[in-house]
Design goal:
With 79 residues, the chain is mostly helical. The chain has a domain of 28 residues. The termini are far apart. 0% of the residues are buried.
Length: 79
């Protein structure tokens, strides 16, 4: 009888341990599913932006001289 009780206790401990592992894996699965969902959302947004909105390339105008040599510059007086 005592052997049966010991065997039952061992099985219960094993079940408890396996349930704990199962809970941990469930948490990991939920985390990974959230990461997949985040990735899909960002990928979907970037794909729709690339397809539907082609950005126009703009050109800036600078007031600075293009030539970096200052000795080429001359001051011209206007009468």
């Amino acid at each position: 009888m005592e052997d049966k009780n010991r065997e039952i206790k061992l099985k219960e401990e094993t079940i408890t341990l396996l349930e704990k592992e199962l809970d941990e894996k469930d948490v990991l699965i939920r985390h990974l599913q959230n990461e997949i969902d985040k990735f899909r959302q960002t990928r979907d947004v970037s794909e729709t932006r690339d397809v539907s909105e082609t950005r126009t390339k703009r050109q800036a105008i600078s007031a600075e001289p293009l030539n970096t040599q200052t000795n080429d510059l001359q001051i011209t007086k206007i009468p």
